[in-house]
Here is the input.
Amino acid sequence: MCSASSASNDGLLKALNDSQRYLDIVHKAELSKHDAEWLIDTTVSNFANYYNSGFIEYRKSVAEAGDFAAVEWTGRGATFKDVLGREYIDCLGGFGLFNLGWTHPKVVGAVQAQLQKSPLPTQELLDPLRGMLAHLLAEITPGDIQYSFFVGSGTEAVEGAMKLAKLYTRKSGFIAAVRGFHGKTTGSLALTGKAIFRRPALPLHNNIYHVPYGDAEAVEQQLQVAREVGNDIAAVVMEPVQGEAGAIVPPDDFWPRLRQMCDEYEVLLIADEVQTGIGRTGKLWGVEHWNVAPDIITSAKALGGGVMPIGAFMSTPKIWSVLNSNPFIHTSTTGGNPLACAAAIAAINVTLEEGIVEQTAEKGDYFISHLKDIAARYSDIYTDITGKGLLIGQHFVNDDIGYAVASGLFKRGVLISGTLNNSRVIRVEPPLVITYQEIDTILNRLEDTLQELRTSASLFVADPAMPQALKEVTLAGESAIGGIAVA
Here is the structure.
């Protein structure tokens, strides 16, 4: 029987050999067929055994793409290839990461240049790129926003915004929206308005109140009740357009009324622009559709240019005074590191230089109008098309219809977003640099998918694994389409 130390040494030797094999793959620009097949098998095995086996089941339409699962490898613009060289149009955009597409050369170049100098800060000296990025954000954010703090993700940005609001107002409560999404760490999760995420982690941050999104009267009623019973509210937190809920656009008077009410009741207004910011909705910031200046803005996802992870929460000098007076009350060892800041500086530059925001507004109008035409012709399948810019929701008549569309599109070389929890709405969220030719290709492949599903309805009935609700739709003589579950 071997000793614990010898077993440990055997494990370390295996880790050394495995890590070298993995590094060899990392350094290869191209893979042989043998290497590609090995990488696919290894990736599926590693996810199942060491990361999360649920991902394999959830990503079935991807993991079972032909004889070998689709494992991402490289991309440029709005297209990417898997390790076997199969090419896809990206209509998911990393849920908002890839506004500038895959590997934008100017963003990659900025990170590579900074990498040769200093990848991480000393923590003691002043790192110049953090100051540069903060200055740029002050120039491009609405209203009197001037100061920024940098983190590594959107949920951290929301956590920081909540903390800032509590420090400034000396109140603890928040009003958020049903079906809103703000992150999954415990503070931001308390704001998130979906039971499937919140319930397993209860109890969360108390003094949180959820109202229907877009219902200004419900917000005001909650503020009135809070004032009467002493539930001090620090801030109202909303997405300009709800993303995970399915690209839900509020009534045009909603954000102006929020601004008015927050001023009247002396609470802060926080715009969670983690997904909508940096051009996604056809404005640089989503709140600009309604000419509203919030007190605090969060940003992440696209801020890193699709190359580095970075998030930020930003506010006015008056509110930021509570951080200026104690700069160590909120810190991050790796947030706002030089590589991430270099990527964000380049991302802002490219967004402005290439007119990305204006392009997005035009492409969004084009895409939405054509999707509405399709929805009208398949009115027994679609209930609505919603969204602004290139944050678009396809709404179907039921959840089960979701799976076949995204699966059919993926087989046709289009990756579209889905979620385990709600396939009734499928987001269309491509890189903002997508071309009109690529949009037309997606629309054509969507038509092909719908037509095939309609003409092959009998095949669905014969499939014992087909969801019961979809069988019932087919047996009733209705046409059926679907897509991977999307949040």
